[in-house]
Amino acid sequence: MGNLIILDMCMCPCSQCHSHDAAQLGRKVAVVDYVEPSPRGTRWGLGGTCVNVGCIPKKLMHQAALLGGLIRDAPHYGWEVAQPVLHDWRKMAEAVQNHVKSLNWGHRVQLHDRKVKYFNVKAGFVDEHTVRGVAKGGKEILLSADHIVIATGGRPRYPAHIEGALEYGITSDDIFWLKESPGKTLVVGASYVALECAGFLTGIGLDTTVMMRSIPLRGFDQQMSSLVTEHMASHGTRFLRGCTPSQVRRLPDGQLQVTWEDRTTGKEGTGTFNTVLWAVGRAPDTRSLNLEKAGVDTSPNTQKILVDSREATSVPHIYAIGDVVEGRPELTPTAVMAGRLLAQRLFGGSSDLMDYDKVPTTVFTPLEYGCVGLSEEEAVSRHGQERVEVYHAHYKPLEFTVPGRDASQCYVKMVCLREPPQLVLGLHFLGPNAGEVTQGFALGIKCGASYVQVMQTVGIHPTCSEEIVKLRISKRSGLDPTVTGC
Amino acid sequence: RRRRLLGLIERSRVVIFSKSYCPHSTRVKELFSSLGAECYVLELDQVDDGAKIQEVLLEITNQKTVPNIFVNKVHVGGCDQTFQAYQSGLLQKLLQEDSAYDYDLIVIGGGSGGLSCAKEAAILGKKVMVLDFVVPSPQGTSWGLGGTCVNVGCIPKKLMHQAALLGQALHDSGKFGWEYNQQVKHNWETMTKAIQNHIRSLNFGYGLSLREKAVAYVNSYGEFVEHHKIKATNKKGQETYYTAAQFVIATGERPRYLGIQGDKEYCITSDDLFSLPYCPGKTLVVGASYVALECAGFLAGFGLDVTVMVRSILLRGFDQEMAEKVGSYMEQHGVKFLWKFIPVMVQQLEKGSPGKLKVLAKSTEGTETIEGVYNTVLLAIGRDSCTRKIGLEKIGVKINEKSGKIPVNDVEQTNVPYVYAVGDILEGKPELTPVAIQSGKLLARRLFGASLEKCDYINVPTTVFTPLEYGCCGLSEEKAIEVYKKENLEIYHTLFWPLEWTVAGRENNTCYAKIICNKFDHDRVLGFHILGPNAGEVTQGFAAAMKCGLTKQLLDDTIGIHPTCGEVFTTLEITKSSGLDITQKGC
C-alpha cells in the first residue's frame, strides 16, 4: 500500500506541488490523471486547467491583444509602423500551444525527478482505501493508499435545454486550442472567463459580442465590474445585456444563428456568428469518481465536495483541494498553496491551515482589474455604511498621455474601516499591470495594514501603483476624485 | 495639550518654556527683558503636566531641554541658539517684525517639493509666494514650472523609456501573431514633440493649481539679501524685494559638468536631451548613475549606437549584484561599455544637428588613452545642489561646503530657525520626487499647525527605469551585511521567466528577485530587490507591506496572483547561503 494517491481527472498544478512536496517528504506517492476530451474533442496534457486551458494560454492571448494596443500607441511615440496591421490567429495559437506543450513535458519530467508514480488512467473509488483506474485501452489497475487526495478540478458547463448548445458551441476548454480563428464570436456569460475571452478576441480584431443575463463578474465589487465592461464596450466589444439564448442553429453556409430573448423587453433577437463560446460557469468533475463507494459527501446542489478547514472530506483520510471543493475560490495559486499545506500537515508534522480570506486575484480583461479583500458591498454589509470609509481616485497612467488614450476607467479604491487607524478591508485597482500592482499590497493587507500606514509609504514615481499610496479623497467627502498633475 | 501649546505659540510674541530653577532659563528671561520684549513664560516645574508638555515640545521641536524659545511663531531653540540669534541680529529682527512681512511663507523653487509645500500652506490659509526661475543650461535649454521631475526628469524619462519598450513590443508582436511591414523606424522628432506637448500641459496645470489656491507665483530668481528678505530678479533683470516670516528652500539640483576642455561648449546633459530638436545619433554617455543608464537604455532602444563610459562602478549606492545584472542586460542588448575611463577633452569636428565630436579619454588605472567620434556626448556624472548663489551666506544658512547640500534636522529645519529646506538639496536624504512631495507637504502642515507628522525617510522604494527595470526598497545586500553582519542574514533569491517572455522568445534566467531577511528578527525583510518588467508597479505594494513589518513567513503565507512576475516573491525557497542552483528549466 502506498502512502498517498492523488486523483486528478485533469491534473491541476495544485496536486503537482502537492505530490512534489509529499514525495520530498519521503513518501510513496502516485498521481492518477486523465483528461476526458471536451465535447468538441479537445484534449491536452499534464498540468491541469491552469496550464492547458486556463491562466497560461489566457494570459498569453491577453498579451497578444495588449500588443495590438501597443502597436497602435507606437506611432505616437515615434515608431513608424506601416499599415495595414493584421493579426494571424494561427500563428499566435501555434506559439501559445507550443509553449503549453513544453510545460506539459516539464511537469512530466518533474514528477519523474521527484519519484512520483504517474498513471494516465481514469479513476473511480472501489472502497475508502482503493481506487480503480481504467486506461485508454481498457486495461485496469487497482491502487490503494493510506491517504487519498481528490483534486479533479472542474470543467466548463454547457447550458441545459438550449437547442444546439452542445452540438455547435465551444467552451474555454477549446478556444485556446483552435487551429483557425474563431471569427465573429458570441460569448455567453459574464464570468471572468467570459469577459477575459471576449476581451482578447476583441483585442486581436475579431467582432465579439458578450451576452449576459444579469450582472458582470458576480461576487466581485460591482462598481469595478461595471467599469470593466464599460471599458470593454468603449473598445469595441458589443454587449447584449439582460438577454438569454434560446437556440443555436447551423446555417447552410456553416455560420451559427443564435436566437435569444431580451428579458427586459420580452422581444426575441437573432444574430449570426462563426463561433459561440459558452462561459456560463464550471462544474466539478465528481460523478465518475464513485464517491459514494468511499462515503465522501458532496453538495446536492453543486456536486462539489464538502470539506473542513483541514481539507478533509466526510471520510477523514480522504481530502479534497482546488476547484472541486465547495465554497473555495477557483484560483490556481490558492489550490497550489492548499495542496502544499496539506502535504506538510499529512507528512511534515505541520499544523498550518490554509487562510482563504484575503486571497488576491486579477481579472485579465483589456483593462486589468486586481483586487484583494472585501468588495465595497461586502464591507458595507459586514460593518455597516457608517463604519466604512472608501478612498478612491480616477487617475491617468503616464503612458496613456502621449498616445491620447482614454483613461476614464482607470480607477482605484481602498475600502477601510472608518475608525482610526482605518484598517484596510479591501483594495481594488483597475488599470495596466493590475496583477503586478496588487501582489505587494495583498501582503500589506494580510499584515493588517491601516490606511495610515499605506499613506506613509513613499510612492514610486512615475507608476500607476503610486496612486494607491496617494489616495486622499474619500467617497463620503463628495469631492472630485480625479487626479491632476503628478 | 498639543493644540493648546500650538495656540499659545501662535498667539504670543515670545514664549519661553522654562524651569524656575534653571540658570539658562534665567539668562534668556533676562535677555528678553533687556530687549524690552514681553514674554509668556511657562515654568514646567510648576505646572502639573510639565513632563507631558516637554514630550510634546520634543515632538514639535526635536528639543527636549529647557529653555525652549519661540519668537513670533518661529522656534529659535535653547539658550545658546537664542544668544547666537541675538548676536547675529536675527532675534531683534524676529521681535521687530510681526505681521509686517509681505508673506507668511516664501518658497524658493517651483519643483515637486516646493510646490507641494506652497500649496499645502495655502490650503491652511497662509499667504504664500513661490519663486521659480530656470537658469538656461549651457546649451541654452530652459523650461517651465514644475522643476526637474516634470521637465527634465521622471516624466520625459519614463515616456522615452516607454517609447523604447514599445520598440521591444513591436519586436515581440510578430511572435504573437501580428503582421505588418517589419521595416519599422523610429522618428525622434515625432516622439520628442509629443512628450514636450505633454510637459507643457503639465506646466500649465501647475500654474493653474497655484492660482486656484491663491499662491503668488513669480517667475524670478530668488536670492536672500538680509534676514527675512529676498531679492527676486526676473528675465529682464528687474529686481523686486519680498519679505516673509518663514522660508523654504527647494531649489533642487542641476547636472554637473566635467570641467574639461569642450564640455560646456559641446556636451549635453539630461537638461537638454529630452527636448533635443534632432536625433542625437551615435551617443557617448559619460557616467554610471541611474540617469546615465536610463538614458543609454532608451537611446539604444531606438536603435542608436550607444556607448557608456564608466569611471568605476554602476549605480553607486544601489545593491551591486543588481547593478551588475542591470548592466549586463544592457550590454547583451546592444549598449557598449567602456570601463574605467574618463574623458579629458571634447573637440568639435563638424557642426550640425547632430554634429560630430571627438572625445579623448584616459584610463583611470594607467596611462592608456583612447579616442572616439560621436554625434552626441551626454554627461550624466552627477548633480550639484543649487545652493551657492542664493544668498544663503547673507543670512548664515549653513551648507556642506563640499557637496553644497543643506543639513537639516528631522523637521527639515536649517540652522537658521525660520529657514527650512526640502527636496534634492537635503543632505543625506533620498533624491526622489515623491519624497520631496511628501516632505514638503508635511513640512507645511507642521509649520502651520495642522499636524506633527514628520517625514519618514526609511524604506523608501525606488525604481530604475533601465531597459530591464530594477525596483528596490530597503537595504542593499552590502549595506545589510555592514549593518547586521552576514551571519545574521538570510537571503532568498531566484531567477524567473516572465510568461510574456516565453512566447516572445526572450531569454530565460535573466529576471531576478531577491529579499534580504534578518534571521534573528522573525526573518523580517530588510531589503527587497527585483529586476524585471514593470518593476516599479511590483515594488510599490511590497514597500507598503515593508512599512507594516513584512516577514518571510508572511510572504510564504500570501497567495500569488497568477501569472504575474510579482508572485515569485510568494514562493521563494532557495537561500543564497545554500548555494543551490536558481536557474529555471521550464516554467
From TrEMBL, chain A:
Gene Ontology process terms (BP): cell redox homeostasis; cellular response to oxidative stress; glutathione metabolic process
Gene3D superfamilies: 3.30.390.30, FAD/NAD(P)-binding domain (3.50.50.60)
Domain of life: Eukaryota
Pfam families: Pyr_redox_2, Pyr_redox_dim
Pyridine nucleotide-disulphide oxidoreductase dimerisation domain ranges (all copies): 359-471
Sequence positions that bind FAD: 59, 323
EC number: 1.8.1.9
Active site: 461
Protein name, UniProt field: thioredoxin-disulfide reductase (NADPH)
Organism: Aotus nancymaae
Encoding gene per record: TXNRD2
From TrEMBL, chain B:
Subcellular locations according to the entry: Cytoplasm; Microsome; Nucleus
Protein name (record): Thioredoxin reductase 3
Domain of life: Eukaryota
UniProt EC number: 1.8.1.9
Domain Glutaredoxin residue range list: 14-76
UniProt lineage: Eukaryota, Metazoa, Chordata, Craniata, Vertebrata
Comment on bound cofactor: Binds 1 FAD per subunit.
Sequence ranges assigned to domain Pyridine nucleotide-disulphide oxidoreductase dimerisation in this UniProt record: 460-571
A GO MF label: glutathione-disulfide reductase (NADPH) activity
Active-site residues, Swiss-Prot/TrEMBL: 562
Positions of the FAD/NAD(P)-binding domain: 103-440
Residues involved in FAD binding: 158, 222, 424
Reaction(s) catalysed by this chain's protein: [thioredoxin]-dithiol + NADP(+) = [thioredoxin]-disulfide + NADPH + H(+)
Annotated organism of origin: Aotus nancymaae
Presence of keyword Nucleotide-binding: yes
Record gene name: TXNRD3
Assembly notes: Homodimer.
